[in-house]
Specification:
Length: 320
Protein backbone atom coordinates (compact mmCIF):
# COMPACT_ATOMS: atom_id res chain seq x y z
CA UNK A 1 0.00 0.00 0.00
CA UNK A 2 1.35 3.45 -0.90
CA UNK A 3 1.98 5.84 1.94
CA UNK A 4 0.70 9.42 1.60
CA UNK A 5 4.25 10.70 0.89
CA UNK A 6 5.03 7.95 -1.60
CA UNK A 7 1.78 8.57 -3.46
CA UNK A 8 2.62 12.26 -3.96
CA UNK A 9 6.18 11.33 -4.92
CA UNK A 10 4.84 8.99 -7.63
CA UNK A 11 2.45 11.70 -8.81
CA UNK A 12 5.48 14.07 -8.99
CA UNK A 13 3.68 16.48 -6.70
CA UNK A 14 5.84 16.07 -3.59
CA UNK A 15 7.84 19.26 -4.30
CA UNK A 16 4.71 21.31 -4.97
CA UNK A 17 3.48 24.00 -2.56
CA UNK A 18 0.05 22.34 -2.48
CA UNK A 19 1.67 19.18 -1.13
CA UNK A 20 3.09 21.22 1.78
CA UNK A 21 -0.44 22.42 2.54
CA UNK A 22 -1.83 18.88 2.30
CA UNK A 23 0.91 17.72 4.70
CA UNK A 24 -0.29 20.35 7.18
CA UNK A 25 -3.86 19.09 6.80
CA UNK A 26 -2.77 15.49 7.34
CA UNK A 27 -0.70 16.35 10.42
CA UNK A 28 -3.38 18.61 11.88
CA UNK A 29 -5.98 15.89 11.37
CA UNK A 30 -3.86 13.40 13.33
CA UNK A 31 -3.87 15.78 16.31
CA UNK A 32 -7.66 16.26 16.08
CA UNK A 33 -8.13 12.52 15.71
CA UNK A 34 -6.18 11.88 18.91
CA UNK A 35 -8.17 14.51 20.80
CA UNK A 36 -11.46 12.99 19.60
CA UNK A 37 -10.36 9.47 20.53
CA UNK A 38 -9.32 10.58 24.02
CA UNK A 39 -12.98 11.43 24.64
CA UNK A 40 -12.18 13.99 27.36
CA UNK A 41 -15.66 15.01 28.63
CA UNK A 42 -14.38 18.60 29.05
CA UNK A 43 -13.85 18.76 25.28
CA UNK A 44 -17.41 17.66 24.54
CA UNK A 45 -18.96 20.80 25.98
CA UNK A 46 -20.25 23.92 24.34
CA UNK A 47 -17.94 26.94 24.47
CA UNK A 48 -20.93 29.07 25.53
CA UNK A 49 -20.51 31.48 22.61
CA UNK A 50 -21.99 31.79 19.09
CA UNK A 51 -20.01 31.92 15.84
CA UNK A 52 -20.50 34.34 12.95
CA UNK A 53 -23.40 32.15 11.77
CA UNK A 54 -25.09 32.47 15.24
CA UNK A 55 -24.49 28.76 15.91
CA UNK A 56 -23.30 27.37 19.25
CA UNK A 57 -19.53 27.06 19.29
CA UNK A 58 -18.30 23.77 20.75
CA UNK A 59 -14.98 23.59 22.61
CA UNK A 60 -13.71 21.23 19.91
CA UNK A 61 -14.58 23.76 17.18
CA UNK A 62 -12.15 26.16 18.83
CA UNK A 63 -9.50 23.50 19.39
CA UNK A 64 -9.68 22.25 15.78
CA UNK A 65 -9.55 25.81 14.46
CA UNK A 66 -6.43 26.55 16.52
CA UNK A 67 -4.71 23.31 15.51
CA UNK A 68 -5.11 23.96 11.77
CA UNK A 69 -4.42 27.69 12.08
CA UNK A 70 -1.15 26.90 13.87
CA UNK A 71 -0.01 24.80 10.92
CA UNK A 72 -1.28 27.16 8.22
CA UNK A 73 0.15 30.35 9.68
CA UNK A 74 3.61 28.77 9.81
CA UNK A 75 3.38 27.65 6.18
CA UNK A 76 5.13 30.11 3.85
CA UNK A 77 2.94 29.03 0.90
CA UNK A 78 -0.23 30.29 2.61
CA UNK A 79 -1.16 33.91 2.12
CA UNK A 80 -4.51 33.97 3.90
CA UNK A 81 -6.94 31.78 5.82
CA UNK A 82 -10.73 31.93 6.00
CA UNK A 83 -12.36 29.82 8.70
CA UNK A 84 -15.94 29.18 9.71
CA UNK A 85 -14.82 30.07 13.23
CA UNK A 86 -13.41 33.53 12.41
CA UNK A 87 -15.44 36.50 11.28
CA UNK A 88 -12.59 37.98 9.23
CA UNK A 89 -9.92 36.46 7.03
CA UNK A 90 -6.53 35.97 8.65
CA UNK A 91 -3.27 37.16 7.13
CA UNK A 92 -0.66 34.47 6.48
CA UNK A 93 2.69 34.99 4.71
CA UNK A 94 2.65 37.93 2.31
CA UNK A 95 4.76 36.00 -0.19
CA UNK A 96 2.48 32.94 -0.10
CA UNK A 97 0.66 32.07 -3.33
CA UNK A 98 -2.30 30.20 -1.82
CA UNK A 99 -5.46 30.99 0.11
CA UNK A 100 -7.13 28.32 2.20
CA UNK A 101 -10.73 28.24 3.44
CA UNK A 102 -11.83 25.71 6.04
CA UNK A 103 -14.55 24.37 8.24
CA UNK A 104 -12.22 22.98 10.91
CA UNK A 105 -14.86 20.75 12.53
CA UNK A 106 -18.05 20.19 10.60
CA UNK A 107 -20.96 18.48 12.36
CA UNK A 108 -19.65 19.52 15.75
CA UNK A 109 -23.13 19.59 17.31
CA UNK A 110 -22.92 15.78 16.96
CA UNK A 111 -19.72 15.37 18.99
CA UNK A 112 -21.41 14.88 22.36
CA UNK A 113 -23.38 11.92 20.95
CA UNK A 114 -20.38 10.19 19.37
CA UNK A 115 -21.37 10.72 15.75
CA UNK A 116 -18.71 11.18 13.02
CA UNK A 117 -17.45 14.69 12.30
CA UNK A 118 -15.18 16.10 9.61
CA UNK A 119 -12.79 18.89 8.59
CA UNK A 120 -13.18 20.50 5.14
CA UNK A 121 -10.63 22.50 3.10
CA UNK A 122 -10.68 24.54 -0.11
CA UNK A 123 -7.39 25.72 -1.66
CA UNK A 124 -7.18 28.52 -4.23
CA UNK A 125 -4.15 30.01 -5.95
CA UNK A 126 -3.95 33.80 -5.57
CA UNK A 127 -4.29 35.95 -8.68
CA UNK A 128 -1.73 38.53 -7.50
CA UNK A 129 1.45 37.45 -5.82
CA UNK A 130 3.19 39.37 -3.02
CA UNK A 131 0.04 41.11 -1.85
CA UNK A 132 -1.77 40.99 1.48
CA UNK A 133 -4.76 38.71 1.72
CA UNK A 134 -8.16 40.17 0.89
CA UNK A 135 -11.74 38.96 0.50
CA UNK A 136 -11.38 38.86 -3.30
CA UNK A 137 -8.92 35.97 -2.86
CA UNK A 138 -11.83 33.91 -1.48
CA UNK A 139 -14.77 35.26 -3.51
CA UNK A 140 -13.96 32.99 -6.44
CA UNK A 141 -15.91 30.35 -8.32
CA UNK A 142 -15.38 26.88 -6.89
CA UNK A 143 -14.30 25.56 -10.29
CA UNK A 144 -11.11 27.60 -9.85
CA UNK A 145 -10.05 25.65 -6.74
CA UNK A 146 -6.57 24.19 -7.02
CA UNK A 147 -7.39 21.37 -4.66
CA UNK A 148 -10.04 20.34 -2.11
CA UNK A 149 -9.94 17.90 0.78
CA UNK A 150 -11.85 16.61 3.76
CA UNK A 151 -11.07 14.45 6.74
CA UNK A 152 -13.76 12.14 8.09
CA UNK A 153 -13.25 11.11 11.72
CA UNK A 154 -15.45 8.01 11.58
CA UNK A 155 -14.97 4.33 12.31
CA UNK A 156 -11.57 4.99 10.74
CA UNK A 157 -10.04 8.38 9.98
CA UNK A 158 -9.96 9.02 6.26
CA UNK A 159 -8.44 11.87 4.26
CA UNK A 160 -10.04 12.49 0.85
CA UNK A 161 -8.19 14.69 -1.64
CA UNK A 162 -9.33 16.05 -5.01
CA UNK A 163 -6.43 17.17 -7.17
CA UNK A 164 -5.56 16.92 -10.89
CA UNK A 165 -9.03 15.61 -11.80
CA UNK A 166 -8.81 12.64 -9.43
CA UNK A 167 -10.11 11.80 -6.00
CA UNK A 168 -7.99 9.62 -3.74
CA UNK A 169 -8.68 8.40 -0.21
CA UNK A 170 -6.10 7.74 2.51
CA UNK A 171 -6.73 5.90 5.78
CA UNK A 172 -4.87 6.78 8.96
CA UNK A 173 -2.82 3.95 10.43
CA UNK A 174 -2.99 4.78 14.13
CA UNK A 175 0.05 2.73 15.15
CA UNK A 176 2.35 4.22 12.53
CA UNK A 177 0.71 7.68 12.58
CA UNK A 178 0.75 7.63 8.79
CA UNK A 179 -1.88 7.85 6.08
CA UNK A 180 -1.95 5.14 3.39
CA UNK A 181 -3.70 5.20 0.03
CA UNK A 182 -6.69 2.90 0.53
CA UNK A 183 -9.23 4.29 -1.97
CA UNK A 184 -7.44 5.14 -5.24
CA UNK A 185 -9.26 7.06 -7.98
CA UNK A 186 -12.72 7.07 -6.37
CA UNK A 187 -15.66 7.07 -8.79
CA UNK A 188 -19.27 7.48 -7.67
CA UNK A 189 -21.92 5.25 -9.31
CA UNK A 190 -24.06 7.30 -11.73
CA UNK A 191 -27.22 6.05 -10.00
CA UNK A 192 -27.57 5.21 -6.33
CA UNK A 193 -30.44 4.31 -4.02
CA UNK A 194 -29.68 6.59 -1.06
CA UNK A 195 -31.40 9.93 -0.53
CA UNK A 196 -30.24 12.19 2.30
CA UNK A 197 -32.36 15.11 3.43
CA UNK A 198 -33.54 16.46 6.78
CA UNK A 199 -37.23 15.64 6.39
CA UNK A 200 -38.08 17.92 9.30
CA UNK A 201 -37.87 20.70 6.72
CA UNK A 202 -40.05 19.01 4.09
CA UNK A 203 -43.07 21.32 4.41
CA UNK A 204 -41.00 24.45 3.85
CA UNK A 205 -38.87 23.57 0.83
CA UNK A 206 -39.06 23.95 -2.98
CA UNK A 207 -41.95 21.88 -4.43
CA UNK A 208 -39.49 20.42 -6.97
CA UNK A 209 -37.52 18.81 -4.14
CA UNK A 210 -40.68 17.52 -2.45
CA UNK A 211 -41.62 15.96 -5.81
CA UNK A 212 -38.19 14.32 -6.12
CA UNK A 213 -38.33 12.95 -2.55
CA UNK A 214 -41.78 11.50 -3.34
CA UNK A 215 -40.21 9.70 -6.33
CA UNK A 216 -37.56 8.23 -4.02
CA UNK A 217 -40.34 6.86 -1.83
CA UNK A 218 -42.16 5.11 -4.69
CA UNK A 219 -42.37 1.32 -4.45
CA UNK A 220 -41.39 -1.05 -7.24
CA UNK A 221 -43.82 -3.44 -8.91
CA UNK A 222 -43.29 -5.96 -6.09
CA UNK A 223 -44.31 -3.39 -3.50
CA UNK A 224 -40.75 -3.00 -2.18
CA UNK A 225 -38.86 0.21 -1.55
CA UNK A 226 -36.69 1.61 -4.35
CA UNK A 227 -34.53 3.90 -2.19
CA UNK A 228 -33.27 4.14 1.35
CA UNK A 229 -33.23 7.35 3.39
CA UNK A 230 -30.06 8.22 5.34
CA UNK A 231 -29.31 11.53 7.08
CA UNK A 232 -26.67 11.75 9.80
CA UNK A 233 -26.54 15.55 10.10
CA UNK A 234 -22.77 15.62 9.54
CA UNK A 235 -22.20 16.79 5.96
CA UNK A 236 -18.84 15.06 5.49
CA UNK A 237 -20.18 11.71 6.70
CA UNK A 238 -23.40 11.98 4.67
CA UNK A 239 -21.52 13.00 1.52
CA UNK A 240 -18.78 10.39 1.97
CA UNK A 241 -21.27 7.52 2.24
CA UNK A 242 -23.12 8.69 -0.87
CA UNK A 243 -19.90 9.26 -2.82
CA UNK A 244 -18.77 5.68 -2.14
CA UNK A 245 -22.14 3.93 -2.54
CA UNK A 246 -24.10 6.21 -4.87
CA UNK A 247 -26.79 8.57 -3.63
CA UNK A 248 -27.95 12.15 -3.36
CA UNK A 249 -27.58 14.70 -0.54
CA UNK A 250 -29.99 17.62 -0.45
CA UNK A 251 -29.93 20.64 1.88
CA UNK A 252 -32.38 23.10 0.31
CA UNK A 253 -33.49 26.60 1.27
CA UNK A 254 -35.94 26.30 4.17
CA UNK A 255 -38.20 28.63 6.14
CA UNK A 256 -35.60 28.59 8.95
CA UNK A 257 -32.64 29.00 6.59
CA UNK A 258 -33.92 31.01 3.59
CA UNK A 259 -30.47 30.94 1.95
CA UNK A 260 -29.77 27.31 2.85
CA UNK A 261 -27.78 26.02 5.81
CA UNK A 262 -24.41 25.19 4.30
CA UNK A 263 -21.57 27.60 3.58
CA UNK A 264 -20.60 28.00 -0.07
CA UNK A 265 -16.87 28.70 0.20
CA UNK A 266 -15.63 26.25 2.81
CA UNK A 267 -18.31 23.52 2.82
CA UNK A 268 -20.10 23.26 -0.55
CA UNK A 269 -17.30 24.27 -2.94
CA UNK A 270 -14.70 21.76 -1.71
CA UNK A 271 -17.32 18.99 -1.53
CA UNK A 272 -18.54 19.99 -5.02
CA UNK A 273 -15.00 19.73 -6.47
CA UNK A 274 -14.55 16.30 -4.90
CA UNK A 275 -17.95 15.34 -6.35
CA UNK A 276 -17.00 16.62 -9.81
CA UNK A 277 -13.67 14.75 -9.87
CA UNK A 278 -15.39 11.53 -8.72
CA UNK A 279 -17.91 11.81 -11.56
CA UNK A 280 -20.91 13.24 -9.73
CA UNK A 281 -22.63 16.60 -9.85
CA UNK A 282 -23.81 19.49 -7.64
CA UNK A 283 -26.21 22.42 -7.92
CA UNK A 284 -28.22 24.86 -5.84
CA UNK A 285 -31.32 24.07 -7.92
CA UNK A 286 -30.65 26.86 -10.44
CA UNK A 287 -26.91 27.06 -10.86
CA UNK A 288 -24.03 24.60 -10.68
CA UNK A 289 -22.33 25.06 -7.31
CA UNK A 290 -18.86 25.28 -8.88
CA UNK A 291 -19.99 28.17 -11.11
CA UNK A 292 -21.44 30.35 -8.35
CA UNK A 293 -19.49 33.53 -7.59
CA UNK A 294 -19.70 34.15 -3.83
CA UNK A 295 -20.66 37.66 -2.73
CA UNK A 296 -19.54 37.33 0.86
CA UNK A 297 -17.09 35.10 2.64
CA UNK A 298 -19.58 33.33 4.94
CA UNK A 299 -22.33 33.04 2.30
CA UNK A 300 -24.77 30.14 2.56
CA UNK A 301 -26.35 28.24 -0.30
CA UNK A 302 -28.86 25.50 -1.05
CA UNK A 303 -26.87 22.35 -1.86
CA UNK A 304 -27.76 19.32 -3.96
CA UNK A 305 -24.89 16.89 -4.57
CA UNK A 306 -24.49 13.28 -5.57
CA UNK A 307 -24.75 10.64 -8.25
CA UNK A 308 -24.90 12.37 -11.63
CA UNK A 309 -28.18 10.84 -12.85
CA UNK A 310 -29.97 11.41 -9.54
CA UNK A 311 -29.00 15.11 -9.49
CA UNK A 312 -29.98 15.47 -13.17
CA UNK A 313 -33.37 13.89 -12.44
CA UNK A 314 -33.99 16.25 -9.51
CA UNK A 315 -33.01 19.28 -11.61
CA UNK A 316 -35.39 18.17 -14.38
CA UNK A 317 -38.30 18.97 -12.02
CA UNK A 318 -37.13 22.61 -11.85
CA UNK A 319 -37.38 22.90 -15.65
CA UNK A 320 -40.97 21.61 -15.97
P1 LIG B 1 -22.91 21.72 12.95
O1 LIG B 1 -21.46 21.84 12.54
O2 LIG B 1 -23.42 22.91 13.69
O3 LIG B 1 -23.20 20.43 13.64
O4 LIG B 1 -23.76 21.74 11.57
C1 LIG B 1 -23.60 20.65 10.70
C2 LIG B 1 -24.08 21.03 9.34
O5 LIG B 1 -23.49 22.22 8.92
C3 LIG B 1 -23.82 19.91 8.33
O6 LIG B 1 -22.73 19.12 8.64
C4 LIG B 1 -25.11 19.14 8.30
O7 LIG B 1 -25.36 18.54 7.06
C5 LIG B 1 -26.15 20.18 8.60
O8 LIG B 1 -25.50 21.20 9.37
C6 LIG B 1 -27.30 19.62 9.38
O9 LIG B 1 -28.21 20.64 9.61
P2 LIG B 1 -29.65 20.33 10.26
O10 LIG B 1 -29.42 20.03 11.71
O11 LIG B 1 -30.45 21.57 10.02
O12 LIG B 1 -30.23 19.13 9.52
Amino acid sequence: MLSFNKFFEEEKLHQSPVFKILKDISEGSMIINEILLNGNPEHLKSEGTKNIQSEDVQKLDVIANNVFLDFFLKNKEINGVLSEENENIIQGHKTGDFSIAMDPLDGSSNISVNIPVGSIFSIHKKDNINTVTCEADFLKQGIKQECAAYVLYGTATILIIAINNQVNGFTLNLKEKKYYLTYPNIKTPEWGNIFSINEGNIKTIDPEIIQYVECCKKLNKDGKRTHTGRFIGSLVADFHRNMMKGGIFIYPKTADKPNGQLRLIYECNPIALIAQFSGSKSSDGNELILEKTPKNIHERTAFIVGSKNMVTKLLSFYKK
